[in-house]
From TrEMBL:
One GO term describing the cellular component: plasma membrane
NCBIfam families documented for this protein: hi_GC_TIGR00026
Species classification: Bacteria, Bacillati, Actinomycetota, Actinomycetes, Pseudonocardiales
Name of the protein in question: Deazaflavin-dependent nitroreductase family protein
A GO term, aspect molecular function: coenzyme F420 binding
InterPro entries: F420H2_quin_Rdtase, Split_barrel_FMN-bd
Source organism per UniProt: Saccharomonospora xinjiangensis XJ-54
Catalytic activity: oxidized coenzyme F420-(gamma-L-Glu)(n) + a quinol + H(+) = reduced coenzyme F420-(gamma-L-Glu)(n) + a quinone
Family as reported in the entry's similarity comment: Belongs to the F420H(2)-dependent quinone reductase family.
Pfam families recorded: F420H2_quin_red
Amino acid sequence: MLFGDDHVRRYEETDGEVGYTWMKGTPTLILTTTGRRSGQPRKSALIFGEYDGHHVVVASKGGAPDHPDWYKNLVANPEVMVQVKADKFAARARTATGEERATLWAHMAEIWPDYNEYQPKTDREIPVVVLERLD
């Protein structure tokens, strides 16, 4: 099973032929953020869904008490790069709130039901992020 840097590397090498489909047939994308301290590109393979023409990801970190670094990076700089299979594009990330978040959470939990197990593990509200394509 691919994970972490190996997942990103194989995905990029094969334009997603290896790595697009992850555990239980779940789709993944590569999200590139800018490190909030280093200013360097940081890449993560993330489960995603599509909703209303946008890509959606969840900053769950398995229900850990702190947000994942990729989320902290995009809060500091919401201009990101996204790769879905061979399609690479610039996007602006934003955190969904209120009713939109609830709708997107339910949608993402259909794709990866474990999200519903992660939320009770943490006091933080797990962010749901909308990636709005720029080009």
